[in-house]
Amino acid sequence: MQGSIFTSFSDMIIEKMGMSVWNELLEKVNPSSEGIYTNGMQYDDSEILAYLSELSTMTQVEVPTLIRNFGEYLFIHLLNSSPAKILNIDNLKDFLTCIDGVIHNEIKRVYPDAYLPSFKYEETPEGDLIMFYKSKRKLCHLCEGLIAGAAIHFEQSISIGHPECMHNGADKCKLVISFKE
Ligand code: HEM
Ligand SMILES: [Zn+2]
What we know:
By secondary structure, this protein is α+β, with helices and mostly antiparallel strands. It has helices at 3-17, 19-29, 45-59, 63-80, 92-97, 99-110, 140-153, and strands at residues 118-123, 129-134, 158-164, 173-179. It contains 7 helices and 4 strands; from the N terminus they run H-H-H-H-H-H-E-E-H-E-E.
């Protein structure tokens, strides 16, 4: 996974829990990177999963919840670092609809080493947006958090359903986003 994701993760821990907690995580995980990450470089996914698992033991909060919270924190950092110019999008639904074909597509062009998830979209007659998420990483809880972060950014109140999940044996995750007035 991209160094920028790791940098945001360590920033979040230091900001919300303090330097001592980050140092404790480094001591427990003992990562080969020594906890120093560079944007644009790739690091092993297992490193972030190891931090999350230690953090879960330390805080008694389940890993999926930790991942969701991280996604919410991560969103604005990703947005600010985006090479794709998405400034002219002013609403959440249009924004979510262009993640796959525009935003992640651009990431892939700039960083050919990046592995990105795939999203397929549908819209229900009620106006809900369905996002089918597929990735070897099964980070659907990160999606939930990122979408929640995007909703805050666009000042749009939403609810997110997750009726089908790769963690329960489905071949893709189904995320249903309902937009409130
Ligand atoms: C609500 C909006 C977004 C969602 C739901 C989303 C979803 C995801 C997920 C789940 C991953 C983890 C990789 C995987 O699942 O295989 C990911 C990775 C990534 N996304 Fe997004 N994303 C969003 C917005 C953005 C934005 C605005 C950017 C702007 C630059 C971005 C750039 C990236 C990058 C750089 C990675 C890491 C790729 C790698 O590790 O090689 N994403 N995204
Ligand atoms: Zn899922």
